């Protein structure tokens, strides 16, 4: 198959920042792209060959869009899977597969899948609705504390709540959910796995994630994670096992907990380029976006090793500001060696909205970590 | 000035591969861009905010285009300078300045400029036309051998000829030209200098260039050049001197000869991102394209050091092939660690046409050099 400067057309469902960064790679290789996104202001709109505004959840829209593409991929999980099933049935390659997306879209089936495949994960119970969960509590089949997660459409901390008492349940929606055992952990880790159509598979180094205490969004992603080689190997092994179990094609970001007693438990996966791999644009031999592209096109995978240490700081809208965005002090952080801002292209900021990220690379991790803190304390996303 | 996700519009004259790679950086920072290029098939057409087809040499077209921009830059030197003069007079920032472009557009005035500013360069004589040059030969004011260069519009080996006998003059055009003393050299080197509006200035490491024996196009660019520290420092000093003499704003690629007796002579300059800096996308902390952008926007310059050794191989159309391009064996080179192809987006190949490049990065230069040769012997640009 000739992808380069040819009539081949890669369709991408979703036109957010992940799509935009993926398009940097299709442009580099001159691969034609079609992008579907509900917003006419989507960050990807200027980087693709053809942009189409439309719903990702509407069967007809997704199906008709898919008919124009030579191969279909996603940058967001929440898309119409029935349309993808039909397109796949008609012979269109769809990576990752709708079957995998269906498993992952629902946290309940995702967790069941781990249990079935002996992938270590925190014990869980599934509930059709909040009422069913409450009934289980009443019957002492479930005990406080636990982590409540809505089964579908949660992201970035939405749809997750630590439940310690009955009062914590009062504001939760009446939706399908799971209750997960609270596992004390010392680290949140992630490993990005890439697997191509032929089954060639590679992992990126283990990264370590630090979350913002309030917004529950990742604040720093640190590569490599400052953990022992033994734990790193264990985490990579679990990540490989997970991607193999899904027979996944594309990138799979596997988020994990390192427990107090050094067990590795899979928290959840994302079947696409992921926030925890943004550092790879500057730090890795091959970025996660290029490797996603290579894998779905069944090209050989690129080297996932790092050239230098990398830390990623998310740029989220500051509290108290809404409206036309201003990146205050961006020129100050750009004056620091090894600092690269990425601006996603959203005109309007609002509190905790992901507006961009900054990568800090350095030969020396301690120095990178210090600069990352300086960056975080200097730049502000205001209006 | 707020450039990011704002109404600021960067105008770029020229939409070739240099423009396309520059646009990867404007997208990363979400800066709006307008591109003017004579071809509707220009590689940049899908990467900018607004693409306009039109002549770069037509006064009205360039002037009207410039009126829509907040700041103007170029990716090719041959543009209508009278229009840029007028735009600058009306207050539009134009970087590099039309004054510098005018000096550089003509190899005669460019060479005179070096002499005036004590910048080392091979001795030259200027001629209004080939007839005047022949008259000088007749009067013994000029002697064989020498290097004939047409004063304007030459590039990539076009417009340059080694003249050893009168017969070598027979096919040369009747245009303004220079005759340059032939200087025996052991290396062709280049140093990219970046200087911002405020005068902050940095150099990239010295690179070493190897040319294709027939096509006179660069075949390998090797960074860092395998030369002594002493020669490298001398070359960087000359490059800095040159950029300062022009009071240049933007990137200035300074091509130089290292003579047999280790003198450094400036050959010519390019006031823009340059083929000799493509390696920087993968190898440097800050690519030449990002630093060009930073410099013209008067942002702090990024670190020009390398993370790893880098070698660039040009992908030019193979002899004997014209038509819809095929990148034969591209999947084989992509299987090698640290190899990244860049496809410029030209559908039609023809012999020696620049179709793309491949960057090889490695911690070890000897290994990178070996891989570069393997890459060159494996991939073929055919039809």
UniProtKB/TrEMBL annotation, chains A, B:
Instruction: List the catalysed reactions.
Output: 5-amino-1-(5-phospho-beta-D-ribosyl)imidazole + hydrogencarbonate + ATP = 5-carboxyamino-1-(5-phospho-D-ribosyl)imidazole + ADP + phosphate + 2 H(+)
Xref: InterPro entries: ATP-grasp, ATP-grasp_carboxylate-amine, ATP_grasp_subdomain_1, PreATP-grasp_dom_sf, PurK, PurK_C, PurT/PurK_preATP-grasp, Rudment_hybrid_motif
Name the residues that bind ATP.
Answer: 107, 149, 180-183, 188, 267-268
Q: In what residue span(s) does the ATP-grasp domain sit?
A: 111-297
Pathway note: Purine metabolism; IMP biosynthesis via de novo pathway; 5-amino-1-(5-phospho-D-ribosyl)imidazole-4-carboxylate from 5-amino-1-(5-phospho-D-ribosyl)imidazole (N5-CAIR route): step 1/2
The Gene Ontology biological process terms listed for this entry are:
'de novo' IMP biosynthetic process
E.C. code = 6.3.4.18
| Pfam entry (one) | RS_preATP-grasp-like
| Gene Ontology cellular-component terms listed | cytosol
**GO MF terms held by the record:** 5-(carboxyamino)imidazole ribonucleotide synthase activity; ATP binding; metal ion binding; phosphoribosylaminoimidazole carboxylase activity
UniProt keywords (A-Z) are: ATP-binding, Decarboxylase, Ligase, Lyase, Nucleotide-binding, Purine biosynthesis
Q: How does it assemble?
A: Homodimer.
Described by its record, this protein's role is as follows:
Catalyzes the ATP-dependent conversion of 5-aminoimidazole ribonucleotide (AIR) and HCO(3)(-) to N5-carboxyaminoimidazole ribonucleotide (N5-CAIR).
Sequence similarity: Belongs to the PurK/PurT family.
Q: What is this protein called?
A: N5-carboxyaminoimidazole ribonucleotide synthase
What's the gene? purK
């Amino acid at each position: 198959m000739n992808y380069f400067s040819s009539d081949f057309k890669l369709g991408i469902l979703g036109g957010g920042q992940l799509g935009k960064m993926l398009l940097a790679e299709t442009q580099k290789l001159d691969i034609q792209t079609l992008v579907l996104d509900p917003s006419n202001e989507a960050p990807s709109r200027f980087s693709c060959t053809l942009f189409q505004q439309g719903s990702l959840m509407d069967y007809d829209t997704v199906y008709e869009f898919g008919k124009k593409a030579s191969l279909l991929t996603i940058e967001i999980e929440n898309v119409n899977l029935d349309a993808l099933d039909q397109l796949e049935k008609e012979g269109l390659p769809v990576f990752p597969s709708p079957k995998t997306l269906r498993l992952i879209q629902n946290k309940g089936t995702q967790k069941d899948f781990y249990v079935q495949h002996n992938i270590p994960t925190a014990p869980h119970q599934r509930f059709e609705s909040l009422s069913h969960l409450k009934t289980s509590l009443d019957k002492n089949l479930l005990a406080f504390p636990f982590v409540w997660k809505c089964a579908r459409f949660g992201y970035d901390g939405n749809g997750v709540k630590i439940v310690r008492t009955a009062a914590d349940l009062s504001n939760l929606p009446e939706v399908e959910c799971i209750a997960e055992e609270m596992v004390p952990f010392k680290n949140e880790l992630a490993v990005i796995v890439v697997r191509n159509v032929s089954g060639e598979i590679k992992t990126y180094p283990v990264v370590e994630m630090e979350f913002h205490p309030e917004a529950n969004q990742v604040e720093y992603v640190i590569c490599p994670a400052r953990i022992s080689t033994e734990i790193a190997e264990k985490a990579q092994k679990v990540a490989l096992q997970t991607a193999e179990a899904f027979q996944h094609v594309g990138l799979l970001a596997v988020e994990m907990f390192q427990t107090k007693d050094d067990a590795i438990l899979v928290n959840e996966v994302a079947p696409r380029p992921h926030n925890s791999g943004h550092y790879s644009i500057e730090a890795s031999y091959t970025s996660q976006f290029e490797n996603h592209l290579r894998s779905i096109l069944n090209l050989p995978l690129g080297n996932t090793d790092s050239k230098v240490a990398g830390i990623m700081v998310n740029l989220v809208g500051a509290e108290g500001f809404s409206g036309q965005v201003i990146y205050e002090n961006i020129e100050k952080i750009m004056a620091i060696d090894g600092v690269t801002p990425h601006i996603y292209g959203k005109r309007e900021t609002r509190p905790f909205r992901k507006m961009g990220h900054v990568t800090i690379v350095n030969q020396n991790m301690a120095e990178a970590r210090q600069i990352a803190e300086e960056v975080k304390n200097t730049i502000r996303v205001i209006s």
